[in-house]
Amino acid sequence: MLLARLSQEEVTGRLVGRAHWHPLEVLFWVAAFATIWLFPSKHLILTEIAWLALFALSLDLILGYAGIVSLGHAAFFGFGAYTAALLAKHEIINEPVIALVVAGLAASALGFVTSFLVLRGTDLTRIMVTLGVAFVLREIANQNGWLTGGADGLQGVTMKPILGQFRFDMFGHNGYVYCLVVLFVLFLLARRIVNSPFGLSLQSIRNNPLRASAIGINVNARLIAIYTIAAGYAGIAGALLAQTQAFASLAYFDFERSADLLLVLVIGGTGYLYGGIIGAVVFKFMHDYLAVLTPQYWPFWIGLLLVVLVMVGRERITGWTAPFRRMADRLDWRRLRPRGETTEGR
């Protein structure tokens, strides 16, 4: 209704303004890349955070922007991991970046094929279908041990140097830089997608699919498209894990991995891309710290965090950061002027 009362120029200006980089965003990524030099002893866990953040970002694309609930997103993660590991093990594609792209395309193809099943029925049906796809792929990998290694996992994977120059080291330095760069590049692409007319139409579908269909939006085509893209993102995240660890296992398909992913998004929030990244940071550091502090009871503390989030409310927590966001807004000279304010008035 608001957009209907605005002129075409004002609507265009508002949409362009959505794509502008906020100062806090710039600061966030500067801090992220600064960790390469500030925390060299933490690169192994930071590598895990990077691929988990990309994995969470892939789920946020369908859950936070399209409203598709999935409990089997690990299907694409595991498929991408095994694709990259098999390509390296059998020396079909030795270069990690090219293998990463191939793994993402393979997972996207799987996402496209299964999307027609996922989009049928209600949310409950989608949950069960996505879960079923992950179970089926896990069992296929388990029964074909001659190819996948079965329950023992795919071993003997030898990764070549990245771009022929940077070899994966046991301390995870090159692996972390590699994962962080991939995360940043794919984040830029996802940011462009969600701020495009296509991304806005997805939010319209999420809010009211019947109304979106009534105004001429091809609902199924857009859901299939974003599901395919999200599957590719998940496949690339899995390939990053397989490449940095030189190993792939059936655990990549497990329900627990998909459940942890939902937990990451609950912690960080959905529908604004950074939720998956922030949630991955909090989840991994909490997991690492609590697993050392109380090895048997660390799930209790993570569960307690979820209860606190529910009881306190995300809106109230967000309100605590409002002064910092207002200060950043004052520094952002590129933000759009309030409606009705002209250049002469300034």
**Which spans of ≥5 residues are poorly predicted at pLDDT below 50?**
333-346
Give the total of beta strands.
Answer: 0
Distance between the termini: 28 Å
Task: Please identify the oligomeric state.
Answer: single chain
Mind summarizing the main beta sheet?
A: none
Mean pLDDT: 83
Structural class: mainly alpha
How many helical elements?
A: 16
Query: What is the helical fraction, as a range of percent?
Result: over 70%
Question: What is the alpha-carbon Rg in Å?
Answer: 21 Å
Q: Characterize the overall form.
A: globular
Task: Explain the overall architecture.
The protein is mainly alpha-helical and 346 residues long. The protein has helices spanning 8-18, 23-38, 43-63, 74-89, 96-118, 123-143, 145-148, 173-194, 197-207, 209-214, 219-245, 255-268, 274-293, 298-312, 314-320, 322-331. The protein has a domain at 38-254. The protein is globular. Residues 333-346 have low confidence and may be disordered.
